[in-house]
Design goal:
Layout (H helix, E strand, L loop, with lengths): L3 E2 L4 E2 L5 H4 L9 H7 L8 H4 L14 H16 L4 E2 L5 E7 L10 E9 H5 L3 E2 L6 H14 L1 E2 L3 E5 L3 H10 L6 E4 L6 E7 L2 H14 L3 E5 L1 H16 L12 E8 L5 E2 L1 E5 L7 H8 L3 E7 L10 E6 L2 E7 L14 H11 L13 E5 L4 H9 L5 E5 L4 H10 L9 E2 L10 E2 L2
Parallel strand pairs: 6-11, 8-12
Antiparallel strand pairs: 1-5, 2-3, 4-5, 4-10, 5-12, 7-21, 8-11, 9-10, 13-20, 14-18, 14-19, 15-17, 16-17, 16-19
Helix pairs in contact: 4-6, 6-9
Length: about 425
Amino acid sequence: MSVIKPFKGYRPPVDIVEKLASRPYDVLNSEEARKECEGNPYSLLHVTKAEIDLAPGTKDSDLTTYIKVVENFNAFKDYGWLVQDNEEKLYIYAQSMNPTDANAHWQYGIVACAWSEDYVNQVIKKHELTRKDKEEDRMKHVRITNANVEPVFFAYPAVAEIDAIVSNITKEAPIYDFIAKEDNFGHRFWVIDDKATIDRLVELFATEVPSMYIADGHHRSAAAALVGQEKKENNPNHKGTEEYNFFMTVIFPDNQLKIIDYNRVVKDLNGLSKEEFLNALTESFDVEDMGTEIYKPAKLHEFSTYLDGHWYKLNAKAGTFNDEDPIGVLDVTILSNLVLDKILGIKDLRTDKRIDFVGGIRGLGELKRRVDNGEMKVAFALHPVTMKQIIDIADSGNIMPPKTTWFEPKLRSGLVIHTLE
């Protein structure tokens, strides 16, 4: 079962929260972050991407960058831009991509600390591989700040009583409520300070939530858990209750999350003509010309491809995939096996320079644009994976193929920070 705990979060005053809360460190490159922070000293990007305050060209991995991280983080606390709660609390964080719509979908997550041992023992389950260099980069950030500056995005199988508690709390006005100017996404935040409610939520996770699942933030999860293990090994008086045994998460019920498609564009047809390529597709797919209007796949195992000004609907034929195989049933696997590998000769999605990936947040118009301008030859749009598929894969101990999931909205950084002290 899952262990969560409250913590004494560092939070910004209400009057600067909109300026301080930032997009995650890995959504922007250094120059984009530098531009986004122009004229805004409050942005947490000064802590998560501190190279923006150094000479252009300074890398995020440079020693001077890490020194600047600590300097800026301490300054934020000294200036009163981050103030610590005086007691351990849980929090609720809600997000919407259409906050001004009366019928907007909001997703409500509980902000809590997860237990590092649950990550080590695979009670916290992952569906992506992590890279050691990226783990080490995030570990350095945790070590030098002695904090989880940015949360990780978890999901859990929905529990009716947890939903009811969250619903009751969120009937009250949130302490933070703003629409981010960069993307017009809505963000709301509540503080849970009633001890009985906190204790009940902790108990419900311990008794009703057998596992939690990393939705977004595999490298941050690994880094936080590994730093906790380091501190444990280096403390001869380790008891297990120290704050470094826990790391900050936002945990959403699985039935509220929206996963967006993650699409592919390819530079050439592997020496085939348009007619030869379309004919090759008919071996594994029913192919239908949908004309010049953008066509979005409507269901699992249905794809669309854009080639030479036309959109084509592809339906995978029966027998070309295995519904009993949690990896084989994925549309990214079907496309990779039957099209990218078999027809286009793309064997390794991680290293082949002929393929690129486009998050569905950009829309299918971005696929059309990149083909029409000659940068790419053909584009493939996929139906998004489901939370059930992610959970099935994580439960089976398997790993998703690369570039499969795209969760949106991303968690805003800076609404609350967890220190390991």
